[in-house]
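Let's inspect one such protein example.
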Amino acid sequence: MKSLRTPLFLFALLALASSAWATEVTFQFRAENAQQVYLAGEFNGWSDSALALTDEDGDGVWVATLDLDAGSYQYKFVVDGNWMPDPSATATADDGFGGENSIVQVSGDALVIGPDGSGGGAPSPPRETAPAGAREVRFLCKADDGATVHLAGDFNQWSDSAQKMEKAADGVFQAVLPLTPGRYQYKFVIGGSWKEDPHARAFQDDGFGGQNSVVEVAAGDGILDAGNYADMADVPEPTTSAPSTSDKELGDPVSGNRSVSFSYQPVISGVKDVFLAGTFNDWNVGATPMSDADGDGTYETTLLLAAGTYQYKFVVDGSTWITPDDADDFADDGFGGQNAVIVVDSRFDGIETEVGDGDIFTDGIEFTVDYSTINEVRDGEFIVQAHAYRDDIEGITLHWQEEGGTAQSKPMRAGDRATVHTSYRTTIRTTPGKPVHFTFQYRDGGESLFATASGFVEQQPDVAQWLTVSREILPPFRIPEWAQKGVYYQIFPERFANGSPENDQDFSEPYYDERKTLPASGKLNGEYFHFVEDWNDVGGLIRSPYRTDGKPDYYSFYGGDIAGIRQKLDYLNDLG
């Protein structure tokens, strides 16, 4: 085995300001079947191709030697494109992607790190097992036992190799990641093929004709399942070290769906409407109305929720957002306040839902004649919408009758599958200006329920009990023809085109004081606002050269502006 001294690029040497006190450090890594091995770390801007290791004698041990000033450095090996920690390292640090960076401590004596040398420095310092406020999230994927399965998502820049899933049971692979509260999209990569999680609670268009799976991560105790994995109950539950931030006594973790009731009593009189908004309905203010059926001043609703953790607030009269004091826990809402957190566990009654079983769950499903239910988009043309709990019914049929006309029926088309509900939609045409009466028939396993203004009934009601819409009750909200047929382009001006370099950001405003310079080390994981002179230099948007955690450069400016958009109007017009 021969050691090859590999010089660093000039920019790296300048950044390190090498001196006579530099120490020779030899990195060794065993990868017997590898084609290429590189060393990436803080000392070379985490470049995955700047510093190659060699295996001149073909014994499977790859070697590189470089000079480093005294200090602590994080690093990884890049083996055939896959980032791998050093198994011989005695010190590690969280890499920000659910894995670890290796650490070498350079103190003045020559070091040999690898199969035949030392581990590279001091013992690993105490560190958190997850980012502050993170919740451990479990992902399960069914695949053949011999398959190679990875988890990719916006939490790891959609890397198809960064997060390998391990076999947890026969035909089931598992990964557990610490994720801070938020909404994440993801997919499984099985043998190189990208697959959605069929058990996910929500989905979103992936831009390639398919769907990404979506997980909503809320603050809370215990491990959160990314999907509804009830049919994989034989997979052992992983343990978690995530601390609880609540003193409230909770129930035992469970699986499956639960009936969850919410109640809110306004502290003032004269309230007109109360809605429930949260991660279970994409924070849609009008999706879940609450009612005061008995007039006692308390607004209530009941939802069918899968076991897990959710954030929520009450919305009073469409504009006042209320966080209850008696929540299971609380989470930062991103606006200087807090969201309430509810943990759906054994405290709530289990509800079995299955398409075709004849049981239709309607708690929390109420109908009001508003734009979320029906809207006359053109003269006599209505878009009608309803929703049902996911995986609970076979379908919904719309029955309608215009004033003085005959009853008609039409099956509604299933649309978006959100965390809790599946939406249904259809279009009908009637005589312009005439009131329209309508009802929804929920169908499952030969059973039916019909929606009326006062709730659901088992027998088809008289037309007098149907919901009614007219131009007096709900004035039409018309979508202009140009908007219906138009093509919309969303532009991020700062990254689109720099049309006027004269107004490039110079960070002279007081806000940027002490936020626009780097420490002597040249590394900073916090705010470092700076201007990128080369418009085509986008490497930092993938992995910042200034950070040690491998995350993108969040604080860079490129100079895009409104002048750039004006200059590119012909280009936008050519797009059609």
